[in-house]
Amino acid sequence: MPAPKTRFVCDVCGYDQPKWMGKCPDCNKYNTMKEIVIAPSLPGGAGAAASKKNTKLASIKTPVHNAQLLQNVTVDDDSGSRKATGIKELDRVLGGGIVAGSMLLLGGDPGIGKSTLLLQICRHMASEDFPILYVSGEESAVQIKLRANRLQVDVPGCYLLAETDVYGIRDAVEAIKPAMLLIDSIQTMRLSDLTSLPGSVTQVRECAAFFTYMAKSGIRDMSVLLVGHVTKEGSFAGPRVLEHMVDTVLYFEGEGKDAHRLIRAVKNRFGSTHEIGVFEMDERGLTGIDDPSAYMLAGRPAGASGSVVICSLEGTRPMLTEVQALVSYTNFGTPRRTSTGMDYNRMVMLMAVLEKRAGYKLQNYDAYVNIAGGLRIDEPAADAGVIAALASCYKNKPVDPQMMVMGEVGLSGELRAIAQPERRAIEAARQGFTGCILPLANKKKIRVPEGFRVLGAANIGEMLNALM
What we know:
28% of the residues lie in helices and 26% in strands. With 468 residues, the chain is an alpha/beta fold. The longest helix has 17 residues, at 201-217.
């Protein structure tokens, strides 16, 4: 019997080498190289079966190459291979549904609703013609059934399996032949050929590769949805290669105490990577929100200073959001700056522009900026709204609640043009707003509904004079 092999694998990036090092040469992290022992394949086991299969495949004569000219490649419409999930917001993020034979990775904080979403997918998609195998490595079948009863999931074609061994899952797949495989979660799966613990870099990488082979090499294309744990920094636990192996990467966002949840696609080989889905969590599970602008603006204070409405563009969806700012005098030498929902450094830069270009003396004031509703805004079109909210609170003068503000702010205090201002203005008019302020460069080309006022400003001084 061959001796087991010893390797040292980085817990952060998955880099492996035969000798231990204090610092990983790939990600430059210290004390992340962990020793793993790769057990040799036993006679007649999975390794022998794979070897026999490879020998059989090698005996088949194949052409020297399968290369073809790009102009000769034909592309068929994938609408027939897509299967709608029945959850409108999720289908929006996926680009219309789940493609047969695709690999999806869903991540999010503990308790955010990942397992709930899997059961709701089963409720809408599972049938005798479309069987789904739900594999859980964290809960028993009884626990899943109790949650299914609460969510009223009782459909034919939904199979439950409490298993962590990949080979056991493979046997179940060969017996059931499901159209979709749900794995909750990939960090609990293990290959018996490896001696490392479940959740380690090697186990996660090899198990994901095994499921990818199962999804794309079968006679019937099987979609696979993997649930992944995330670290405290918000990234997927395990090797970075996990995200490269799958076709679609979805992040579940939201705080546990908030009622709403967001699903954002950061990678999608079959659709846009900028779409988001908005959900509300209640006792019935996740419910899609068709009008997120109205939902985010619900409860907005009337006549309060430091409150400004902006419009962020998430993929093809314009979404109105409230920016709140609080400026308070402090006796301490170093004022405090805090931002929630936007980049901290961006907020500090905008405060410096407001102080230098508009004459607002903020060096002795604490400043707090919050994007209401728990959204994360990272596009520069929100700069003008942050500037207006800070100035409004500083002067204690409320901004017209029927005006929306949008525009990118430069270091010279100028308002620069933004993308798709017309769609943003139409969304504001649909929500009952009477006008908006936008960069002067965008005003010349914009077409808005009748009765909707559009004010153009070249810099933040003109914008603030028009608002207050």
